[in-house]
Amino acid sequence: MEFEVIIIGTGFGASVAVTKLLEKKPNATIHMLERGLWWFTPERPLPQYLLDQNKTDPKKQPIQYWPRPDHNKGVINLLSVVRTNNTLIENTRKFFGDIGTFFTGQKRPQPLYRYSMFKDIDIVTASGVGGGSLIYANVSIEPRFDDATQSYPVMANWPLKLTKDDYHSATPQKQGAIDWMTKKRGKAQHIVTKFPLPKELGPDFDPKKLGPNQQFFYLGKSRALRDGSNVLGPDWKKTGDWEPLDLAINEYETITQTGDFIGKNPPCERQGRCIQGCLPGARHTLNKTLINQVLAVKPNVTLESLADVSHITARGDGKYEVFYKDARDDKTKSHVAKIVIVSAGTLGSTAILLRSHSKGTLKLSNQRGRRFSTNGDFAGFVVDAQKDFPAAQKYNYYSTRGPINTSHVMFTTNDGKVQVNVEDGGVPPMLAPAVGAALRVVEDKINKDKFMKEMKLAWITQTRPDFEDWFPVTPDPSKPARFQTEDEMLMNTFYFNCMGTDDATGVFTVEDDPFNPDKSKLELKFTDEPSKQRVYKVTEEIIRAMATAMGGRFVPWFTWDGFQKRKLITVHPLGGCSMGNSAAEGVVNTKGQVFRTDSQTQQVYDGLYVMDASIFPGPVAVNPTLTIVALALRIVEGINL
To answer: What is the pLDDT of residues 576-588, one digit of tens each?
Structure first.
């Protein structure tokens, strides 16, 4: 089929693209391709759009529901919706899954999470309509701004330097990222208390102003980050006070939702499972935006899920053919358009362009695959917090309650070269037994080999680990620890979620998959050992100091110093198709157009754009969502239909 525009992906870049292009040309024929499917909560009615779509063809828009229940038995459901990039592992898991299907008749579900494992790093991404918004922490935050230079230091070497207007403008001439987020999704909220603050305080009441007798209103983890952040290091310091984060979640104001979702989105219930899907439906995920503001009101826009794009071919007639595998029938298909926008996320967009170059259907810059950044992601725990504090000073942290992230504090080295953003983190309740046990394992309190054996068996067979060994569930009323709730298992544990300025030295390539000759796979290597970069040393110093201030013991993330040694993990992958002023510097220009190297007269592929985090030439040292939107808004301004 042929369309005016094909958009690959349904995340933030793709959602900006489709909404802004429709403002330019309301009747444009736009087709969106998404490798995942629709995810929703079972606690709310399905949108009428999906019900209507599936009346005639039940397979047209397949739907799955968030992992649950919210205790250790939910781990089975969770494991079943995780897919890795390791073909051997997945073939083994499929084998056990097929056995289960034989006995139960239940097919293996489509993944919500993509867990990509490389030598030096593991990368977690989403798979579904709405992209990363399905499993992200709802945070909208701009990078640290330097008042003295009136610029964002992280962008000092970027070919395109965003301005305050790119984030904050709300005029007819220019829409900034915050305004787009508010109008297309919903008003951001500050959620650092255990319950919505009384309405009589007003919708704009600053939760930082709670008085001395109201401190127990705060979520324990939010308060803990505030109380533990007054630390100073040998070459680093705080560059701002503790602040609540802007979260794309409903609190007590729900009028910002429209269409199918108006009146159906209750306030946040502090269930601590944002990254697994919100059961109340309080989050402003992009699947809602796409239904409310695009698909249900614009029949000229269509969406095809379970369409995993392989590569793009530049045709002789100036159009592009997009090839994809349809998961419904496992057949390769294609569509054609004059304009193609690649917004499949850092790993997805990079893989598509690399495969296209490898097949000879596009000729790309030698910078292809380069400048991958981890965004300085780093994590760690504080255990047995406040153990030696006077009883009058103690309060429980409860890492399982509240939104996944609620507040943050920023630090910078004295020379200004390294920035670190520290946020309180959350652990979904169903993972509390495994996380609590793993923390005890890495401190050598129980048998590590036995624990790892049971966890690997659970992963391969998709069955529940034997948590009885790690958290006894036989009740004993005289011993509270004998029958803990998931909340109680981590009530004195704090989880750090950090980002910073890494060196962006990763390089992606596509290689043949020895276990699947029909498909190439993405590989990632670094020009130097990433774990030795300065940002991780500084980050670890900061959170160790904060752990001491919280009165507990610091325990690093499990792959950093536990079950593995100095292996990184990121949920904010950036780069791979980075911007540059020329093909010698980047894969795309500052307008998002892909450089071409097969012509002396045409510098870019006319009509081929990349619009997501893969074009970042370096880290932003904060959650990147708002910057993705800001960049996408700049790029889409230059696209003419």
So the answer is: 999 999 999 999 9
